[in-house]
Design goal:
The complex is a heterodimer of chains A (90) and B (407). With 90 residues, chain A is an alpha+beta fold. In chain A, 20% of the residues lie in helices and 33% in strands. In chain A, a hairpin with a 4-residue loop joins β3 and β4. Chain A is globular. The termini of chain A are close together. Chain B is mainly β and 407 residues long. The relative contact order of chain B is 0.20. Classes of the chains: A alpha+beta (90), B mainly beta (407). The interface between A and B is large, with 55 and 70 residues.
Chain lengths: 90, 407
């Protein structure tokens, strides 16, 4: 698990690799409900059977990997410091 | 956002993919990229089909049928429309309460306190929930006795909070699962392994013991966890081969075979297939434009899922969420490596929106691609025109001990 924090201490991103999916309710905190609704909505029109990507203006969550080896990341696009690119979060 | 703990990220081994010439093998006159004949027959050969599946909503799903019996009885049921998945481990059958075909009565797998065991089985975009039961399993002429399997059942007790807190939805219905079950034949014998046999915080929490309607995470011995049925076959139990024909345009249906065993019979030899060792995560490496990424081969993923728009230049789709939509078909080249073995894989990614709208009755697509940040997931299109070997962890083969991929 990696956390990414701004100089002021605000965590703007997290990335993980683990044998089972992490507790996103704990990890995402107040953003969990937004993610859960988006994941449920994605299921209703799902054609892709692979990674799950939720891309909102204020929240990005990407889930990937496979059974026994899950990986993912979540970040707040509006909170990324100017010198941090989304590709730096892994 | 907040995080509770910090652990180092895992780094991974190395690899490449390839196409090889034919080699000797008894019986058949033509060969493709390995020692297996192109029209294999035998007691270890099972037909598979790529089509839209039992819910008629799948693209690039490989399906087969499985016969399950109450242990040591002739009380059996054959379930068709079961997804063949090298990215998971173990047999899961969708109960009729979820709209599935499974109706057989099977004995429960009980935990150490004597109560029924249930599982929250994690997949990337959803989970399956339901009791673990014990069945005799037959596929082609192969038989396994007393196999712990999961019965996916949305009406079984109450889904635990630990399961819900992953945030992804339950895939407990025919519509959401898109299959009557999942046959996980990836390179490990169980869906969890040692981690789930431990007590405490290191346990990933897949298995529960239920009293009343309440289910608590419990440690479960490895041999009581949901098992890849292949390891419990009396023979041909060291791995599995998937063989599908080349696909050059969208199709409604394509036939192939699943062959059990590696180098155990005349119809399952490795021939000239290249062997790519994989790490404890079941992964090797693939490089693209000079950067190296973790990679895996997954028949249960329905596209080439790799990297992102910033890295590939391929835009995501407007309509088809989770896929790439280049304005014209894009040629992609990536290289897998394992020690001194390397192979370059060339493939094409076309617009998923265009593929789906122009081929509304098709279910087989060779040029579907989609994003997957920092990773290569070689999904079902990779299998088209290849013979792909999956060797199971700690099992002996003529090319050494698993786990490995070969093709």
């Amino acid at each position: 698990m990696r956390e990414y924090a701004s100089p002021s201490g605000k965590i703007f991103a997290v990335a993980w690799q683990s044998p089972a999916p992490p507790d996103l309710k704990q990890l995402l905190g107040s953003y969990f409900d937004e993610f859960q609704q988006a994941a449920a909505e994605a299921q209703t029109r799902r054609t892709a059977r692979g990674p799950l990507i939720i891309r909102h203006p204020g929240l990005v969550v990407e889930l990937g990997g496979h059974m026994r080896a899950f990986r993912g990341r979540a970040y707040l696009p509006a909170e990324l410091p100017q010198d941090v690119h989304q590709g730096d979060i892994h | 956002m907040r995080a509770s703990s910090k652990r180092g990220l895992v780094s991974l081994a190395a690899l490449t993919l390839l196409a090889v010439a034919a080699n000797s093998c008894g019986g058949a006159s033509t060969h493709n990229n390995s020692g297996t004949p192109s029209n294999p027959t035998g007691n270890n050969v099972q037909k598979i089909v790529v089509n839209s599946g039992p819910a008629n909503n799948y693209a690039n799903g490989a399906f087969t049928s499985v016969t399950v019996c109450a242990p040591s009885t002739s009380n059996c049921q054959t379930i068709s429309g079961v997804l063949v998945d090298t990215g998971s481990y173990g047999l899961r059958l969708l109960s009729s309460s979820g709209g599935g075909a499974f109706t057989l009565s099977l004995p429960a797998q009980n935990g150490s306190s004597g109560n029924p065991v249930a599982e929250c089985a994690p997949f990337v975009s959803g989970f399956t929930w339901g009791p673990v039961k014990v069945a005799d399993v037959s596929i082609s002429g192969e038989h396994a006795s007393k196999v712990p399997v999961q019965i996916i059942d949305p009406s079984f007790l109450v889904v635990p909070d630990n399961c819900k807190n992953t945030g992804v939805p339950a895939d407990n219905t025919l519509q959401t699962l898109g299959a009557n079950g999942i046959l996980g034949v990836g390179p490990f014998p169980q869906d969890c392994g040692n981690a789930c046999s431990q007590s405490g915080k290191g346990n990933p929490g897949l298995y529960y013991e239920c009293t009343g309607s309440s289910c608590q995470v419990v440690p479960l011995p490895v041999d009581q966890q949901v098992q890849n049925p292949v390891v419990l076959f009396a023979s041909d139990n060291n791995g599995v081969i998937l063989q599908l024909p080349a696909v050059t345009s969208p199709q409604t249906s394509v036939n192939g075979v699943m062959i059990f065993g590696i180098g155990t019979q005349g119809n399952n030899s490795l021939g000239n297939a290249k062997v790519f060792a994989i790490n404890g995560n079941g992964e090797f490496n693939t490089s693209y434009k000079g950067q190296t990424y973790p990679a895996f081969i997954d028949s249960g993923s329905n596209a080439y899922f790799f990297l992102d728009t910033a890295t590939t230049g391929l835009p995501e789709c407007g309509d088809s969420s989770g896929f790439y939509c280049p304005t014209s078909p894009a040629s992609i080249s990536a290289t897998a490596t394992s020690g001194s073995v390397t192979n370059t894989i060339n493939f094409t990614v076309s617009s998923a929106d265009t593929l789906f709208s122009n081929n509304s009755s098709a279910a087989v697509f060779n040029s579907l691609g989609g994003p997957n940040s920092g990773t290569f997931d070689w999904g079902l299109p990779f299998f088209f025109g290849r013979t792909v070997f999956t060797a199971i962890d700690a099992r002996s083969t003529p090319a050494g001990t698993g786990p490995f991929w070969a093709y």
